[in-house]
Write a structure and sequence with these properties.
The chain has 2 domains: 147 residues, Jelly Rolls (Sandwich); 96 residues, no CATH class. It contains 1 helix and 19 strands. The strands form 5 sheets. Strands 1, 4, 16, 17 and 19 form a 5-stranded antiparallel β-sheet that branches. The chain has a 5-stranded antiparallel β-sheet with strand order 2-3-18-12-15, with no helix packed on it. A hairpin with a 2-residue loop joins strand 13 and strand 14. The protein is elongated and about 75 Å long.
Length: 262
């Protein structure tokens, strides 16, 4: 059995992309496998920091109207729960107007969000692309909200909120192609569910690691990439800046006939 320890630190014969999610290792010398045997690849362990933001440049705008004037505010990239969203928008409003205009409250029974308005002359834009509102449940079916459209000065989202945009980390490798992501052919070698809080480290060490068939006999390079449950590349940088959050994995390459001994 061959064991290979791979991390996303730049080094000799190793290239790491700007987001820190993809590593390409040139092997010196290459690994030559016996052509008369079949081989498997397994992920024996992985240590990955859960640092993927749910608010990015793709959805960080908060657009609202107060006293017939529209304002566009930008939330910093980060991992936000409802409390952090509430506090950030409250600080924005207080700095701009001297008092808080909105309060976001979770309806945990239905996974929806209630927004309370402190002024009847206040509206929130829910339709412009790039706003935070869709992950709060105010999506395509919702127009501008506010103005005390209900007699109690609040509005409840028509859809469920989806603050946890990352559900699982998938590891891909160029040495195998025997898996599927949904209905499409893929080279995913394992999936790691999230079971830690943000900015904590996922320690993955499976008892029965998934066995993936290797389709080559000569291995000159190994390419590893980390993606989310939709196959979208993760970002371990701060909007593409360095340094990146580190991760590492331990993989094994072994003949198929050894599986009964491991």
């Amino acid at each position: 059995m061959l064991s290979l320890y791979i991390n996303n630190n730049e080094g000799s014969y190793k290239k790491v992309n700007q987001q820190g999610n993809e590593v390409n290792v040139q092997l010196q010398p290459p690994i030559l496998l016996d052509k008369n045997k079949k081989y498997q690849l397994r992920v024996l362990s992985a240590n990955i920091v859960y640092c993927q933001p749910n608010i990015t440049s793709a959805n960080n705008k908060f657009i609202y109207k107060y006293n017939n004037v529209w304002y566009t505010k930008t939330l910093p990239t980060g991992i936000y729960g409802l409390t952090q969203i509430n506090d950030t928008i409250a600080r924005i409003n207080t700095a701009q107007h001297g008092h808080q205009l909105f309060a976001f409250v979770a309806n945990e029974a239905t996974s929806t969000i209630i927004i309370y308005f402190s002024d009847p002359n206040t509206y929130i834009d829910c339709t412009t692309l790039g706003t935070i509102m869709p992950i709060l449940g105010y999506g395509n079916s919702t127009s501008d909200i506010g103005g005390f459209t209900s007699s109690f000065g609040y509005v409840q989202s028509t859809e469920q909120a989806h603050l946890n945009t990352l559900q699982e980390i998938l590891i891909k490798c160029n040495l195998t192609n025997g898996s599927y992501l949904n209905s499409e052919f893929s080279n995913i070698i394992c999936g790691i569910p999230l079971n830690v809080s943000p900015f904590s480290t996922l320690n993955y060490s499976p008892i029965h690691a998934t066995r993936n068939s290797i389709y080559v006999n000569r291995i000159d390079n190994i390419n590893i990439q980390l993606v989310d449950q939709e196959g979208i590349a993760l970002d371990f940088s701060n909007n593409g800046t360095q340094p990146v959050e580190n991760w590492n994995i331990l993989i094994s390459i072994e003949p198929v006939e050894m599986q009964g001994l491991l």
